[in-house]
Design goal:
By secondary structure, this protein is α/β, with parallel strands linked by helices. It has two domains: 175 residues, Fe-S hydro-lyase, tartrate dehydratase beta-type, catalytic domain (fumarase), CATH 3.20.130.10; 32 residues. Helix content is 34%, strand content 29%. α4 links the parallel β8 and β9. α2 crosses α3 and α3 packs parallel to α4. It is globular.
């Protein structure tokens, strides 16, 4: 049975390993977000070379969530959170996970096998956020903690946001290698023979009716 975990960042590897596929979580604390491919390349290069990022992500969360930050009276205000497709970043996520001490990553659509292996090795889990769930997620925004690599457009910057009870999000890949995407794929594959047989029977019936 799935459980709801109310998590406060940063997290230990032990806490993350308590999460299982299908569990739900809410998050309070600071989360870092970006949907920029140049940002991911830069993060992965830093992780491989051992160069520090402008922020310490050890024990933290990095999500493929888009946001626009507007400055109002000298204060940076994030206007929304909207999930982006994580598979676009498969090429860089294993290095990012292994090199930066992350405990949670996420977005929508999952990650590839190489990334799942890195998650398992490092005690990190992948959270799936509801596609089109921007109004729900955006309610959790409390402000901008820091903004780096500001030469990029707002959505590509390395932004750290203060959030309160952000979510709920689903644990789609846990730190043990369990994957909701694999489970769904296996169920679909198991149903395929029956679907093909029903299609064959329907075509045969149509052919018989045409001859008649």
């Amino acid at each position: 049975m799935s459980r709801l975990h109310e998590l406060t960042l940063p997290l230990s590897p032990e806490r993350v390993r308590e999460l299982r596929v299908g569990d739900m979580v809410t998050l309070t604390g600071q989360v870092t977000v970006s949907i920029g491919i140049p940002t991911h390349k830069r993060m992965a290069e830093a992780a491989r070379s051992g160069q520090p990022l402008p922020i310490d992500l050890n024990g933290g969360a990095f999500f493929h969530l888009s946001t626009y930050v507007r400055e109002q009276d000298g204060v940076k205000v994030p206007l929304y959170l909207n999930p982006s497709t994580s598979t676009r970043y498969n090429a860089w996520m294993p290095d990012i996970v292994r090199g930066l001490g992350l405990r949670l990553v996420g977005g929508k659509g999952g990650l590839d096998d190489a990334s799942v292996t890195a998650l398992k090795e490092c005690g990190c889990a992948y959270l799936s956020f509801l596609g089109g769930g921007a109004p729900l997620l955006s309610r959790a925004l409390r402000g901008v903690a820091s903004s780096h690599w500001n030469e990029y457009i707002s959505q590509f910057r390395l932004l750290t946001l203060d959030v309160s009870a952000m979510g709920p999000a689903t644990v789609a890949i846990d730190a043990h290698g369990g994957s909701a995407y694999d489970q769904v794929g296996a169920r679909a594959h198991g149903r395929l023979p029956d679907i093909l047989e029903r299609m064959r029977a329907a075509r045969a019936a149509d052919a018989s009716a045409t001859r008649a």
